[in-house]
Amino acid sequence: MSVASQKQKAPAESRQGAASPNSDPQHDNPEFPSTKRDAIIEAAAACFLANGFGATSMDKVAAAAGVAKQTLYHYFGNKNGLFEATLRHVTGQITHVLSDHQPLDRGPAETLRRFGSEVLEITLRPQSVAFMRLLINEAGKHQEVIDSMVRQAIDGISDTLAAYLRRQAENGRLGVDDPKHASRMFLGMLTGELRLRALLGALPDMGPAAREKHLNAAVDAFLRAFST
Q: Considering only CA atoms, which of 115, 116, 117, 123 is closest in space to residue 99?
């Protein structure tokens, strides 16, 4: 390749890495239609699950989503940014329940049941289980993928719950001294064994009645432990 052609190619490559991989296209780019964003996220998730992280290219995602590859680079920065956005999309469906904008007169029992229901529903989805298996397979190969999972899915949900528990403690509704530890306890009771069983393909019947029973037991045990 000639020096001239290398100079012509360099600007395009620099543009591909220009966007921050941690940016959220829906918030950082208000003109980016949410319907297009969701279509891209769904296509990316399907590609990651079908091919693994390493074998998924931006070309494959662009073709599956029906958009130009430069659109992906512009809004997501690179493949890591796209993967993080995919994880944010899933976790956002859970954490909105604990938003600061939720009414203060809604008690912890109701809020934790709503939150727990969202966590269980998403955790036990076949797509979520497939994502966890994908990440386990990628461990040791693409550490940046594991770091994204921990940051966006695990820490993101746990930290959001911890912030909610802290607010409830400040309002005198819960006796929580260590919100982060309490958050991990609740999530562990709620999903720990079930997630492992789902990964092993040994999940027991978790129809609506069984799921509600499990959820209520976790919430009741948590509230007994941290009641004021």
A: 115
